[in-house]
Amino acid sequence: MTTKRFEICPAAEFESGERRIADLDGFSVGIFNVDGEYHAMKNDCPHQRAPLCEGKLGGTTESDTPGEYDWVKPGQVVRCPWHGWEFDVTSGESVFNPHKVKAKTFEASVEPAEDDSRTPDGEVDVIEGEQRATDGGCEGCGVDLEGEEPPVETYEVDVEQGTVVVYL
Amino acid sequence: MSQDAQGATPDSRSESELTLVDADVHQRWADDEALVQYLPERYKDDGLVLPELLYRNPGEFLRQDETTEDGGKPGSDLEKIADEHLDEHDIDYAMLTGNSWFNLAALPHRDYAHELARAHNEWLVNDVLPVDDRFMGSMYVAPKAPEKAADLIREYGDHPQIRQVMLPGGAEVPYGRPQYWPMYEAAEEQNLAMAVHPFSEGHGTSNPPTGAGHPNNYIEWHTLLGAYYMGQLASIVTEGVLVEYPDLRWAFIEGGYGWLPHFMWRLDKNWKGLRSQVPWLEEKPSHYIRENVWFASQPVEEPERPEHHDQILEMMHADEILVYASDYPHWDGDDPTWGLPPMDDEMERAVKHENAAELWDLPTDGSELQ
Predict the structure, then answer these.
(1) Which residues constitute the domain of residue B116?
(2) Is pTM, for the whole model, over 0.90?
(3) Which ipTM was obtained for this model?
(4) Domain residue spans in chain A?
């Protein structure tokens, strides 16, 4: 399948711990820099279509024993601003039920610098290409999210010529 | 039921031009000074000192996607509420319930709590309600000072947009006790509903949510809000408030409703054998609840099987007593588009606007509140 390439911004302006929300050809996508690694996830909660990626970003807890906490995945978990459901931005998986609720993530990366000036900060530059992602609807929406298919996608991100690029 | 009490017929109900009434929208002030300016001199230096909720929510209590343009807290931009919630969802009227950490029942000092209530109401009528005529206001009172609360209700109750008097979910003693009745007499006289909404229950001078004691964290506290409501409702019904003030309407907001079948059945069953303890209840207790008390839908109950939700609605007589609420802009809100499960047309009309029109005596042609 062909993919569509979107330049987000110079990697130098997108630091670790930051996130950006971009409209990529009609898809609202959250791009995250988690410890130098870029990740992109569809900004659309599978529960009630809320802007998932605008929620609080941080870590979460795990435990082997009641009363004891381990702090895990720092900077890697977004909590939906509606109802607080947690998703791992690197995989699109739901924290409370990873096999049944998954958010859509996209490819995101930084490519070597070539001509940063062509992509003004905050603007998204669309490069020619066929669109692969066709899921603009709400498959799997609702409270019942059983199933193997991720209801919210993640996408590939690269850094190309010093620019963060997302592939849908 | 209540359409009978108000003389309306099923035909006139179906002629309503309303589409959606929201029973729970939280507005707040951007800066404490908005209220402090209305405090008497003796309290101005104190500012606003209330028992904020000590339980924390890892995802925050306010919707992070609704932060105002200048970075203010969600709900602090009143025009944003009007534009992005009311306009967006075609809401005819929205009940503004205020800032729910402002727990006047949990303050030990009666006079200070009463003056905070007055300052809140001044802010409400001067700075909030004029912003949009679809806003309905909840006036605040200090439940520990019921005589003064009654005076406040008479003072502010004539404002056309003020439609209810707000009580926190928990107080020092249950709301059926006669000490509170002066408030109820005034509210009935002013044609205002009494409303109960969660604040920082369990803090300050309010009781823990159950006799089991204080919850350990927010998930436990938030799950138990219905326990407060069961306690208040049992008190109000059995002490005879709904007999003494038959025209006083009550709104129980954000305490759930799935427990109502159990509660009403158990109360009715006990009444059959224990009626002599409450001889003023000439009808079975659930009769008074169905006549006088409404329940807000948020947070919607989510049974494992969707058809069980329809059964809950049927068992609790939701067509008479359930009103839609969004809880905008709080973290656990029910969006008008996605929050309500499917229900048949008649039930949907009742929940979306007909029951609210009865609860707050709203014009069904959507005209400006008089």
Answers:
(1) 2-359
(2) no
(3) 0.77
(4) 5-61+69-134+144-167
Class of domain A5-61+69-134+144-167: mainly beta
Q: Is B63 on the interface with A (CB under 8 A)?
A: yes
Annotate B189-224 with b (16+ C-beta within 10 A) or e (fewer).
ebebbbbbbbbbbbbbbbbbbeeeeebeeeeebbeb
Residue B365 resides in a domain: no
Counting Cβ atoms within 10 Å, is residue B301 exposed (0-12), middle (13-18) or buried (19+)?
middle
What was the pLDDT predicted at A135?
Answer: 33
Q: What is the pLDDT, as a whole number, of residue B113?
A: 98
Phi, psi of B71 (to 5 degrees): 85, 10
Q: What is the pLDDT of residue A165?
A: 96
Res B271: pLDDT? 96
CATH number at residue B29: 3.20.20.140
pLDDT band for position A125 (50/70/90)? Answer: very low
Low-confidence residues of chain B, pLDDT below 70? 1-14
From first CA to last CA, the distance across chain B in angstroms is 25
Q: Examine residue B40 and state whether it is found in any structural domain, yes or no.
A: yes
Are the Cβ atoms of B60 and A50 closer than 8 angstroms? no
Answer whether B65 sits within 8 Å of A55, measured CB to CB.
yes
Touching check for A49 and chain B: CB below 8 Å? yes
Contact flag A83-B331 (C-beta cutoff 8 Å): yes
